[in-house]
Amino acid sequence: MRSIAIINQKGGVGKTTTAVNLSAALAQRGHRVCLMDLDPQAHASLHLGLTLADGEPSVYDLLTGDASVADVRRQIDENLFVAPAHLDLAAAEMELAGEVGREIILRDKLAADHEPFDFLILDCPPSLGLLTLNALTAVEEVFLPLQPHFLALHGLSKLLRTVQLVARRLNKSLRLTGVVFCMYESGTRLAAEVSTDVSEFFAGGSEPGCVWADAVNFQTRIRRNIRLAEAPSYGQSIFQYSPHSNGAEDYNNLALEVLGESLPELESAAAKLAAPLTI
Ligand code: ADP
Ligand code: MG
Fold first, then answer.
1. How far is the CA of 65 from the centre of ligand 2 (A)?
2. Pocket of ligand 1, candidates 6, 8, 15, 17: which has the most ligand atoms within 8 Å of its Cβ, to mutate?
3. Which InterPro entries does the record associate with it (predicted)?
4. Residue 111: count of CB within 10 angstroms of its CB
5. Domain parsing of the chain, residue ranges
């Protein structure tokens, strides 16, 4: 199983949109996916139409109580399962403040779960607090969504330091494996410049053993697409809400890259190059 935490301590960069639609794209391609909502705002749960009634088990009960992953997880579509959050998750951080081993509660709960999945995807809150730490100790991969504006790299060193520290002290398997641009305005100079800066940052200067040494800058840019912003209000993934939109195409391509498969456009470009020239 690949386990991936979608992390950026900034809000509004596309974490939830990516967690939900990447999960849906992978599930649609026949992979069994469990999406876990670690944000008290519960946006990923709401995006997929899950509103919890009082007393229904959520990630809060997983982290603070006796609930198991199986108690919390529910199937919402073929191959797609969600462990939903609720506003009360905001209290978990305070409640667990004095607890020994509070950073590895999620890891232990997941280790006790034997349901087979191909992907576990964690949607994280916009902070580097205890909930994000629980995600970082529980997964092997971090994906970093970035919005290409001039502050994209601001705060990145703190995030990378946190991931590096967790990798050193708590989770030897942790690596930052992917950077994905969200809300990309194709054709603007700013977006192109920021993505070049980011590529250079991740390509250069990382010593071996550094957690982002093998990070991939995904070639798929998630373009700004109003359908992606509308889909959550209908409780649907982009594939249910608008399957022919740019948003659906981009998240489908991202899923192909995550799976290590080649992208349709690149295939056709390569085919054109390989084809003999006819005059
Ligand atoms: P985060 O989880 O990092 O806070 P979200 O995924 O919730 O970010 O995105 C912030 C807002 O931007 C949401 O309203 C979302 O619907 C919208 N959004 C995200 N990605 C796109 C996109 N590619 N095009 C248009 N709107 C987007
Ligand atoms: Mg979010």
1. 24
2. 17
3. AAA_dom, DNA_Partitioning_ATPase, P-loop_NTPase
4. 11
5. 2-274
- With CA atoms as reference, report the closest residue to 72 among 43, 30, 115, 41: 115
Residue type for 66, please? D
CATH superfamily of 2-274: P-loop containing nucleotide triphosphate hydrolases (3.40.50.300)
Distance CA 74, CA 50 (A): 10
| Other residues' Cβ atoms within 10 Å of the Cβ of residue 20 | 30
Determine contact, residues 6/44, Cβ cutoff 8 Å: no
pTM of the shown model: 0.93
> β-strands 74-77, 80-83: how paired?
antiparallel
Token pair 């709960």 is at which residue?
109
The string of pLDDT tens digits covering residues 153-198 is 788 888 999 999 999 999 999 999 999 999 998 888 888 888 888 8
For residue 224, the ligand 1 atom closest to its alpha carbon is 24
Closest by Cα among 108, 138, 116, 142 to 216: 142
Q: Would you call 257 exposed, middle or buried from its count of C-beta atoms within 10 A (0-12, 13-18, 19+)?
A: middle
How many other CB atoms sit within 10 Å of the CB of residue 31?
A: 18
Residue 66 pLDDT: 95
Residue 135 and residue 106 in contact, taking contact as beta carbons nearer than 8 Å: yes
Going across the sheet that includes 141-146, the strands are: 74-77, 80-83, 33-37, 119-123, 2-6, 141-146, 175-181, 216-217
In whole angstroms, what separates CA 70 from the centre of its chain? 21
